[in-house]
Amino acid sequence: MRHHKTMRTLGRVRRQRQALVSGLARALILHGKIQTTEAKAKELRPFIEKLVTRARNDTIANRRLLSAHFNNEQMIVQKLVTDIAPRYRERAGGYTRIIKLAPRASDSSRQAVIEFV
């Protein structure tokens, strides 16, 4: 039974779901804005906000913790720490925005754009 299990499963097992969210986070950091399904965007939001909060305090320990989420891709960590996190140094949270779009024509799944504020 799934009592008190709040995370969306997205039709995947745990490792696949972690890889999906990590890949979405990587794309969001690189491009600043991505279009995906509404459920994936809502699942990505808390993940990416925790990463940005960690990146605001630029220490070697935080860089190592961030790079562990992205398979040691230093380019992603560098962009997160030097470009994205300084914009939100004074902000208490809420670094992303989800904009709902029209349903996809092929399967009518609800679409959304997630972007940095």
UniProtKB/TrEMBL annotation:
Residue ranges crossing the lipid bilayer per the database entry: none
GO biological process: translation
UniProt-recorded Gene Ontology molecular function terms: structural constituent of ribosome
Signal peptide: none
Coiled-coil spans in chain: none
Alphabetized InterPro entries for the sequence: Ribosomal_bL17, Ribosomal_bL17_CS, Ribosomal_bL17_sf
Gene Ontology cellular component list: cytosolic large ribosomal subunit
UniProt key word Ribosomal protein: yes
The keyword Ribosomal protein is annotated on this UniProt entry: yes
Domain of life: Bacteria
Keywords, comma-separated and alphabetical: Ribonucleoprotein, Ribosomal protein
Subunit structure: Part of the 50S ribosomal subunit. Contacts protein L32.
PANTHER family: LARGE RIBOSOMAL SUBUNIT PROTEIN BL17M, RIBOSOMAL PROTEIN L17
Similarity section: Belongs to the bacterial ribosomal protein bL17 family.
Name this protein carries in UniProt: Large ribosomal subunit protein bL17
Organism: Candidatus Lloydbacteria bacterium CG22_combo_CG10-13_8_21_14_all_47_15
